[in-house]
Amino acid sequence: MQPPRVLSIAGSDSGGGAGIQADIKTITVLGGYAMTAICALTAQDTTGVHAVLPIDPAMVAAQIDACVNDIGVDAVKIGMLGSPEIAAVVADRLEKLVVPIVFDPVMISTSGAALADTATIAAFERLMAIATLTTPNVPELQALGGDPAMRARSVAYIAKGGDADGPDVIDRLIMPGEPDRAWTAPRIVTRHTHGTGCTMSSAIATFLASGASIVEAVEDAREFVRAAMLAAPGFGAGHGPLGHHAVR
What we know:
The chain is of the alpha/beta class. The chain has eight helices and nine strands.
């Protein structure tokens, strides 16, 4: 049986904890075949993002075309894009696909570095419209207008609660025409949280590519992220990476 083919369209994290690198690890550990379209290079480690170099939009489009036209794709994960021009070209390509698309609207890294400007955030509208599921964290949801604005867009999204306060983490799934769902779990107190959002979105994409429903994919992805946090190898002086390798 062939593995599900998952294309990650995102930025590279030189430290290996987030971005394309976290996506490849997640997709592979979960039994998928990982492909990539790199949108930006970063000089990044557990203490922060030290430099960012967006890729030419035409090159991003060429990477997507190469994967889709030859190997094929069963699901797509979108992460850091780097510029409004890249966001536009990604939307152009994905509007032609009929596969699950998970959009992680990356705006701020775990260390606090801004990874999307105002124009890029404005370009997210097209991507949210075509995505099967959008996965904002607390500050990203606020930047997108909060729950009222997201509900008005009539898009499916999961409001991740890892950045909220309190002893528990509450993740809320909102899908047009269906009752809201929520998952609550005790907060894992750790500094090793780098790449949790990337891991969550790429795990959801992999489960969707395998035929899971959105609810099933979210449930399984949450458990995978929590297990990877508990298996963190302890690297770095800041927000350390997860232990993808030790799960499953």
